[in-house]
Amino acid sequence: MLEIATPETVMFWALAPLSVLAALGMLVVKKAVHSAILLAFVMVTLAIFYIAQGAIFLGVVQIVVYTGAVMMLFLFILMLVGVDASDSLIETIKGLRWIAITAALGFGGLIITLIARATLGRTPVGLEFANSGGNVEGIAMLLFSDYVLPFEVISALLITAALGAMVLAHHQRTNRRPSQREQAIARFRTGSLSDAAGLPGPGVYALHNAVDVPALLPDGTPAPTSISATLKARGDVIESAQFQLDVVDPTVKEEK
Amino acid sequence: MVTASSLVYLIGLPLFGAAFLLLIGRKADKWGHIFATAMSAGSFILGLLHFFEMSSRATEDRAITQTLFTWIEVGSFKVDAALLLDQLSICFVLLISGVGTLIHIYSISYMAHDENRRRFFAYLNLFIAAMLLLVLGNSYLNLYVGWEGVGLASYLLIGFWNKKPAYATASKKAFVMNRIGDMGLSFAIMIAFATMGTVSFEGVKESVDRVGTPTLTAIGIMLLIAATGKSAQFPLQAWLGDAMAGPTPVSALIHAATMVTAGVYLIVRSNFIFDAAPTAQLLVVIVGAITLIFGAIIGMAKDDIKKALAASTMSQIGYMIVGAGLGPAGYAFAIMHLLTHGFFKAGMFLGAGSVMHGMNDEVNMRKYGGLRKVMPITFVTFGLGYLAIIGVPPFAGFYSKDEIIATAFNSGGAQGIILGSVTLLGAVITAFYMTRVMVLTFTSKARWDEGVHPHESPVLMWLPMAILAIGSVTAGYLFTQGDALVSWLAPLFAKKEEYDELMPHSVVTVLAITAVIIGVTAALMKYQFKSVDAIAPSDVSLATRLARNDLGQDLFNEAIFMRPGQALTQGLVIVDEKVIDGAVHGIGSMAVGSGATLRRTQSGYVRSYAALILVGALVLLAAIWVVTQ
Amino acid sequence: MDPYNYLYLAALLFTIGAVGVVVRRNAIVVFMCIELMLNAGNLTLVTFSRINGDLNGQVVAFFTMVVAACEVVVGLAIIVAIYRSRRSASIDDASLLKR
Known about the structure:
The complex is a heterotrimer.
Chain A: H1 7-28, H2 32-52, H3 56-81, H4 96-119, H5 135-143, H6 148-169, H7 180-189, E1 215-216, E2 222-223, H8 229-234
Antiparallel strand pairs in A: 1-2
Chain B: H1 7-24, H2 32-55, E1 64-74, E2 77-85, H3 87-110, H4 117-136, H5 140-158, H6 165-196, H7 201-207, H8 213-230, H9 239-242, H10 248-257, H11 262-269, H12 271-276, H13 278-301, H14 305-325, H15 331-358, H16 371-374, H17 376-390, H18 396-409, H19 413-443, H20 459-480, H21 484-489, H22 505-528, H23 542-548, H24 553-599, H25 606-627
Antiparallel strand pairs in B: 1-2
Helix pairs in contact in B: 1-2, 1-4, 2-3, 2-4, 3-4, 3-10, 3-15, 3-20, 4-5, 5-6, 6-8, 8-11, 8-13, 10-15, 11-14, 13-14, 13-19, 13-23, 14-15, 14-18, 14-19, 15-17, 15-18, 15-20, 17-19, 17-20, 18-19, 18-20, 18-22, 19-22
Chain C: H1 4-23, H2 27-52, H3 56-86
């Protein structure tokens, strides 16, 4: 007997493998940003699955809150922390990867057989009746009747979390901020006089004034102090030599 | 005149003296000795009053009791701290306080130059108090207190000059060996409590019929062990010779006249037990007989005058123990010999002290000789004691020893013949070694070291000696006059069984006198009519060497008890180190080892913990999987 | 369409998230894997809601989302704080527990 595929079936079999692939991709890509994008993709597919299953409200929330807000937050933090270029995938703890993979295979296998065992022979009810008054209205009825107390508690949790994040992110000064005058004096007292005038800006004497191009010292060598440490850590520094003013090299014949 | 309520003062006076002198300290240095002597004399006078009071009463009313307070009361078990003064204890009270007072007087002079004289007198008073408590207690538990008290006083006084390590060791030795005996006494008390539910003399006497012979035998043997410890009897005799380390008055009072006879007192006091336990009684006789010969043999070889006398004491107490072991026939004679011995042996010890006093504390008899002329009073008093101890009629020892020998012979059968022969042999040896002491010290040629100028002792020293000498001369006669002592003590003991006289008394007397003559003659031949070396000859027979070494008693103790004890202790140390410590350390290192192993899982990496959680979840799922199968 | 297939999908996603938590070292990626696991959980809740014809499951999934949002806020704040003091976002560097 040939079973006729419903639109949902088509959608499922089209998106489910993609979401699994995206999730697997999260594990293997090197850059955290790529992981974030893959995760966003998984979340969007999940939102579609929610809507397909009659959870319209949750599907919208999934996109707005998760894919929109939470993933934005992740990306913000990624930018703040800086992308660690050396995010290698070589395992440093001996044997951990194999333990994890073996355990995960076992775990997945067990849970899938368990689901199969638990669900076989049961007919799904479907949400047609529950959603008869509208999905949002149905959830609202529950939320503001049976779940009103957890709802209030969870709002308190949200506020607490926001406050907690502020407290954690707040940087308490442990010493007085030095005044401009003191900073000037310190510049002259310590270090070489060359630093006294302030650090060079990027691109000085180079043919390029982008932020990722180091300035050049009078002898033509790049000045490492002229670019941001974050850029250097990321490896996003362009060799300034290629933007150097023409160097008269007697051995090379000038070509125009 | 005096009532039972004054019994406590018999003990209280010297006890107060001891406590007072020890507490008040150096302030009493000037008059402490007189105070202590007064306390002892007070006790003696009170004892005398009690004696007269007692003898004026009818025979059955003579025993009086004073209950001081209820000591222990647990359920049906009740022990009063109570004092009992009867015909037996009054003998001891008079001996202890009387001889004690004389020795106090003697010590005033003897210890005059000792800076710790006050402490010495305090200890002497403590001893008198404890010894009086020993003989006055109305129960074994009260007796035990006094028993331990005299042990303590003995320990303190033997080690009085504890600046010399050897003396301190001697006191320790005496204490430790006494502990073995004390253990016997405590066991006897425990058995009595467990089987009879009472520890008073009266209660035990009434309970004798209720309990079986094995119990009584056990109690008897335990009491015998106690007696051997305190009275320096075989096999716990080794401490007495070393106890001579104490000042001579101490040797006279504690280790000759009174404390060492406590074992005899204990056996005689427990006559109702021994009468009902023939096995224990036989053991008593055997112990007494062995010690009798043992001490006498040692006495023949000793050159140290005090040790010779100590060996003699051991031997004489052997006589008493034999007497006490002979049952109702012998108890009174054991006590009689004890009393006469108290006189003459104390006198002789004081004499020995007097000689040492004159000879710059020299104790080696081979360096004496010829002291008869320079120390006439000492010679006479010592000589009277000598005549008494060897049993020359009519001196005290003749009567008491003669009676014991006769009773031994007449105890029946082969036992009687053996015992009689042993006691007779003892008499020969006694005569020999005492004559030896006498000759070496007084009548042979002078062998003094240079710079020694013997002189007679002051009056405070010879007066007690003289009084004791009078006792040595007259006591035996007085006690036997009309069977005075025997009938005085008779109510305390079971009735004497009628027996066939194996040997008439007169024959025994002749035999005894013959024995004395043999012993004296042999000694005179060897020492009086031959010259004696100032240095002990070393090429002597094995027997002599053995006797000089106390018949190997210390070697024996060392080999049988000390070495195995040390080995056991060392073994226990090894067990402790290897097994017990091993177990403890093993648990520790096991914990450390397992910790070190488990530590590897604690890498500190969050991811490894996460992996563990994953594995845990896997296990959980697997469990669910298996359960829901 | 058999809704049980969603459950298998959720199980797969959850397992992948768990592996990611263990094998990745970047704290932010680890965090994202946790989010993935939470989302897988939400998917099962929604699916159960459908199977049982009951909106309670969706309400619980909603709560889970809110709690997950809170957790993300606090967790990221912690990561920032650690990064500020240690100059590293690698969770292996925060292994003070060992010492």
